[in-house]
């Protein structure tokens, strides 16, 4: 089975848009007088939802897992685990640790779901106070029930990577957008284990505690 070329090209275009926005907001320095909401011990809650579109790497994931389409919701709680670093640099920022829940509802090829959680390590680029881009690496654990031929249901690992950006509309409230590459497989604990890989396009909100 092969991924529809038009769907793949649309995914590539959206990915390119996220990357362009990420680098534009990273290098765009716009100082403001809002109170710093990032840093060691600072906390916030977040909610992201969006659409996942399956794809295959050349070396893995070429089964029916590459044809999934799903809706995903990721609520989370974040805490700063570093002070502000590189104060006078364009990559001024800090590290956050995020505890995230994962709720995924699959509707193609057949119906199904995945439920679980993940630990996220995020670096926020803080050169701008209005636009705050971030990069993220995650390790998740889910229970999978997608009813696929090429990926066994049950316990799976879900490593992930993301590029995203916050846009602050108030001192303590931001909207955000992100592009995530999301993987699910069981590391050979059960067969078949051809994996599920998806581009996930997310929109969300974040509220920052003082």
Describe this structure as you would to a colleague.
The chain is elongated and about 50 Å long. The chain has a single domain, classed as Porin (Beta Barrel). It has an 8-stranded antiparallel barrel with strand order 1-2-3-4-5-7-8-9. It is built from 1 helix and 9 strands, in the order H-E-E-E-E-E-E-E-E-E. It is mostly beta strands. The N and C termini lie far apart (51 Å).
Q: Can you give the helix content as a percent range? A: 10-25%
- The CATH topology annotation reads as Porin
Average pLDDT number: 86
CATH architecture: Beta Barrel
Query: Which spans of ≥5 residues are poorly predicted at pLDDT below 50?
Result: 28-35
Strand order within the widest beta sheet: 1-2-3-4-5-7-8-9
Rg from alpha-carbon coordinates: 18 Å
Task: State the major sheet.
Answer: 8 strands, antiparallel, barrel
Order of helices and strands: HEEEEEEEEE
| The CATH top-level class label | Mainly Beta
| Structure class | mainly beta
CA-CA gap between termini? 51 Å
What's the helix count? 1
Assembly annotation = single chain
- Percent of residues in beta strands: over 45%
Summarize this, please?
By secondary structure, the protein is mainly beta. The chain is 11% helix and 52% strand.
Write the layout of secondary structure elements.
Blueprint: H1 5-27, E1 43-55, E2 69-80, E3 93-108, E4 112-125, E5 131-145, E6 154-157, E7 160-170, E8 173-184, E9 196-208
Antiparallel strand pairs: 1-2, 1-9, 2-3, 3-4, 4-5, 5-6, 5-7, 7-8, 8-9
């Amino acid at each position: 089975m092969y991924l529809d070329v038009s769907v793949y090209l649309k995914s590539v275009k959206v990915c390119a848009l996220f990357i362009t926005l990420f680098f534009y907001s990273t290098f765009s320095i716009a100082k403001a007088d809002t109170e710093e909401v990032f840093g060691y011990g600072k906390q916030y809650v977040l909610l992201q939802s969006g659409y996942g579109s399956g794809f295959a790497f050349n070396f893995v994931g070429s089964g029916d897992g590459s044809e999934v389409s799903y809706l995903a919701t990721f609520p989370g709680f974040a805490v700063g685990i570093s002070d502000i670093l590189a104060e006078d640099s364009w990559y001024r920022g800090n590290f956050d640790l995020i505890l995230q829940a994962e709720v995924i509802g699959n509707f193609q090829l057949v119906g199904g779901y995945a439920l679980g959680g993940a630990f996220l390590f995020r670096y926020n680029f803080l050169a701008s106070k209005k636009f705050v881009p971030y990069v993220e690496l995650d390790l998740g654990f889910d229970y999978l029930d997608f009813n696929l031929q090429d990926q066994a249901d049950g316990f799976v690992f879900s490593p992930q990577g993301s590029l995203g950006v916050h846009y602050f509309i108030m001192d303590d409230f931001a909207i955000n957008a992100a592009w995530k590459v999301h993987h699910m497989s069981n590391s050979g604990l059960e067969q078949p284990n051809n994996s599920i890989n998806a581009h996930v396009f997310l929109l969300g909100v974040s509220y920052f505690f003082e």
